[in-house]
Amino acid sequence: MRVRNKSVLVVGLAVAGLCAPVGSGFAQVKRQMEGKPEAPKATVTPTGTWSPKSTAYVKASNTNKDDMFGTAIALSGDGNTLAVSATGEDSAAKGINGTAKTSATNSGAVYVYTRTATGWKQQAYIKASNPKEGALFGNALALSNDGNVLAVGSTGESSSATGVNGNQDDTSMPGSGAVYVFARNGAAWSQQAYVKSSNTGGPVVGYQFGYAVSLSSDGNTLAVSQTSDPSNATGINGNQKNLQAPDSGAVFVFTHSGDTWSQQAYVKPWNTTTPGVLFGYSVGLNSNGDTLAVGAYDELGGEGALYVFGRNKGKWAQEARLHASNAERGDSLGCALAISDDGNTIVGGAFDEDAILAGIQPPDAGAKDEADDDSTGAAYVFVRKDGKWSQQAYMKAFNTRINDQFGWALTMSHDGNTIAVGAHLEDSGAKGVNGDMKDASAEDSGAAYVYTRSGDTWSPAAYVKATNTKAAAEFGIALALSADGKVLAIGAPKEDGAAVGVNGKSVKSAVNSGAAYVYY
What we know:
This protein has 520 residues and is mostly beta strands. It is built from 1 helix and 29 strands.
């Protein structure tokens, strides 16, 4: 894609009905097709080795049109706790399981579900402690391994406070953003912290803190991106007050001890910081929080890159910059990423890569296709051995089509051996697992693709669709895998069902109410 404006954010600003308040740079969901979608020009058949036995169709307990339930999604390691956000939810309720007679348009909400032997049920309805119109609470989510710590991004939050637990009632800095940390004790949730960056914004517009979030497995290290950070500082803990590189982006690392959260590091690329690279568009922490991966999807004219940082005794340092073997301008590597528990496997999405290829491809395939501007998308797997990083795989969809935007979202099992990749604009009308991928009857219905690794070899394992596939649902815009890779949760924020709860039914519709699907 050559047009790069901030009219749509990867996790839901414009899809929730709002535009970002600052300049250029963010990915735009586009429609290139005219008329009906065409069948894929090439396909590969999945092995069928990933085969869930059950599915769940999950809706909010207060389903309404345009809520965009399924915008972001997170799973605990055991796959028994599920968090789903609805950035377009409009209640003015506060805190846990609150109610309100007034509304706050696009304030956003998060819903937590738990699984028992009898199935899934909602455990909590979570709102910000300071809900405001346009806050987009839930644009990003992360859960600790045990599911007892939840981090929620809210890029539209408007306080000018800095640090932890500052003044939540202030509204003087639109788009400054915040992250809310919640903790579960037994079955009861409570807010643990209200987290802001140390350079919220200015003079009148914020920097979208909370765009992406990640937690270490124990929930004690939190990485938060601020994609519109304007400093041209490089490396760790540079000058945050510098304003010479608008939309260059930054990542903030926080640590938790006892009941206290505090900022540990302000992280920028070490090689160069230029305007508009959107460093922090995606972030990921490994299990112990000592390896941090950061996407900069608009670097080098949209070629994109992944950066890796390491922590040793509380001190962060640069480690590597990763780029695709067939990188070209506009491919957007780093729009999404996932990292394994040991930090030795990273997968990055490049939703705007243009090759018309299918399945696992040689590293030099797909080069010199920039002019085609097909936005088929790709994913790249990188591995670290003996301290050195190299590319292990170049992945394409099993049924590549123009503008499917494969790689917009992705997730990885804890051992790094299972990866799921979303293509939220995929067009098949198939339903369930391993249906007819050549079908083209449901434009922009979306799909997810599961790959598995044996040794150093990756294979296509499963083609996953919604159980009630509908055009324009954008299934696959958010994904989460359990630790063992056997439970997969997928968001479809433009699904139109009016049902409520789990596996509900309704003959009515609620446009863009959204849904989540769990395969296990």
